[in-house]
């Protein structure tokens, strides 16, 4: 039986506890939060053995094999380091750490102790996302990806988290190097990192505060971001984050030398994009029929998963947790290679460094040339084993 603990008992901890319950061969032996009432409420609502307000007590008394770290991002590194030093495998919610250098240190520590870790990039493990990965690995693209596009939007008009952030000048998100972006975009960046073939991409980032937020008097929060990535082999990628564009997309597109694929995470759709064209008017009539057939096929696939009771909103998280536990118990490879975790952290570092070095408003009056906005990421340290 794998003994599991959760550190940080806020909203996302509920999702972790719910999915851990679905997995055989494990039990939650303890939860911890520095606010005792938070730990107690989670303990009372789920089948959990004990609750703690001190991390060292949790580690010494509950003695978990795996710790899920679901605290605010600024605490991830120190908590993860303590858990690794105590001999625990770790699952760290996104963003993995605040800086790439911290991610390197955690990976190095884990490898040195023979422990395993993963990042909470569960969006990469939904039903459609797994089908996309299978098609790419089976050669559907006709070769290595040529171009990638990732869209990850967030609606700031929704109540709850967004309203609390905009209304509180002391909100913990504002202390992050990338503020709102830092707490959200890792899902979209991780999709790109999975399929980038180079380890040192060039990054050009352009971010600004939307007119809507400026009218509300907001000057700190960057809620519009456009990023271009490229490497020495000629592979390119675009990343778009927006709080204003509608529909609010969570999509990923990957284009190869022969075919392409479109993933829509909101609707659990995977669409094959045929690279070749039909002759004459066939191009106007045949593709709509093919696309219609694919949408019906996606519908039937989703219904099948729903009837099998495996179509809940956090099915990707369950799959990632289950795969991570299997990597520990059966000594398999981790579900997210460390190279991808480090590359995601490095790209985010480059984005936030660029945004911090320039004004956040539109650049048209700044005189800044695109070439001046080019930053090359350093290669991953030699102490890290790349996949």
Task: Annotate the secondary structure layout.
Blueprint: E1 2-7, H1 11-21, E2 26-32, H2 36-45, E3 51-52, H3 55-62, E4 66-69, H4 76-85, E5 89-92, H5 100-113, E6 117-119, H6 127-137, E7 147-152, H7 161-167, H8 179-184, H9 186-195, E8 202-208, H10 211-215, E9 224-230, E10 236-242, E11 250-255, E12 260-264, E13 269-273, H11 282-307, H12 315-329, H13 338-357, E14 375-376
Parallel strand pairs: 1-2, 1-4, 2-3, 4-5, 5-6, 7-10
Antiparallel strand pairs: 7-11, 8-9, 8-14, 9-10, 11-12, 12-13
* N- and C-termini, Cα separation: 29 Å
**What sequence of helices (H) and strands (E) makes up the elements?**
EHEHEHEHEHEHEHHHEHEEEEEHHHE
In DSSP terms (H or I, runs of 4 or more residues), the helix count works out at 13
Number of strands: 14
Strand content: 15-25%
Question: Key terms for this structure?
Answer:
six-stranded parallel β-sheet; alpha/beta; disordered C terminus; 387 residues
Gist?
With 387 residues, the protein is an alpha/beta fold.
Give an overview of the whole structure.
It contains 13 helices and 14 strands. By secondary structure, it is α/β, with parallel strands linked by helices. The chain has an 8-stranded mixed β-sheet. It has a 6-stranded parallel β-sheet with strand order 3-2-1-4-5-6, sandwiched between helices. Helix 1 (11-21) packs across helix 12. The longest helix is centred in the last third of the chain and has 26 residues, at 282-307. The protein starts with a strand and ends in an 11-residue tail after the last strand. The model is unreliable at 360-376 and 378-387 (pLDDT under 50).
């Amino acid at each position: 039986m794998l003994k599991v603990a959760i550190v940080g008992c806020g909203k996302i901890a509920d999702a972790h506890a719910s999915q851990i319950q679905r997995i055989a061969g494990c039990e939650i032996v303890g939860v911890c939060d520095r606010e005792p009432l938070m730990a107690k409420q989670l303990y009372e609502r789920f089948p959990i053995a004990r609750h703690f307000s001190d991390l060292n007590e949790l580690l010494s008394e509950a003695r978990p094999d795996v710790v899920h770290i679901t605290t605010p991002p600024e605490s991830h590194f120190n908590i993860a380091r303590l858990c690794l030093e105590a001999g625990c495998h770790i699952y760290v919610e996104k963003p993995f750490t605040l800086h790439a250098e911290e991610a390197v240190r955690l990976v190095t520590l884990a490898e040195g102790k023979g422990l395993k870790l993963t990042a909470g990039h569960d969006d990469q493990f939904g039903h459609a996302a797994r089908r996309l990965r299978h098609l790419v690995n089976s050669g559907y693209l006709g070769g290595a990806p040529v171009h990638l596009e990732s869209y990850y939007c967030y609606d700031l008009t929704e109540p709850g988290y967004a309203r609390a952030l905009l209304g509180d000048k002391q909100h913990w998100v504002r202390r992050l190097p990338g503020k709102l972006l830092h707490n959200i975009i890792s899902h979209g960046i991780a999709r790109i990192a999975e399929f980038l073939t180079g380890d040192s991409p060039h990054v050009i980032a352009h971010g600004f505060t939307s007119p809507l937020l400026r009218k509300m008097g907001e000057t700190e929060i960057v809620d519009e971001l456009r990023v271009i990535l490229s490497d020495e082999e000629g592979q390119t990628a675009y990343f778009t984050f927006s709080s204003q564009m509608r529909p609010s997309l969570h999509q990923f597109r990957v284009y190869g030398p022969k075919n392409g694929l479109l993933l829509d995470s909101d609707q659990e759709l995977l669409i094959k994009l045929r690279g070749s064209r039909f002759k004459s008017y066939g191009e106007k009539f045949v593709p709509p029929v093919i696309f219609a057939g694919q949408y019906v096929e996606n519908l039937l696939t989703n219904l099948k998963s729903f009837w099998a009771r495996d179509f809940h909103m956090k099915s990707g998280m369950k799959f990632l947790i289950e795969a991570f536990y299997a990597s520990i118990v059966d000594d398999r490879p981790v579900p997210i290679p460390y190279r991808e975790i480090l590359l995601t952290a490095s790209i985010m570092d480059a984005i936030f460094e660029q945004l911090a070095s320039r004004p956040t408003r539109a650049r048209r009056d700044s005189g800044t040339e695109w070439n001046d906005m080019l930053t090359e990421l350093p290669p991953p340290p030699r102490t890290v084993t790349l996949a």
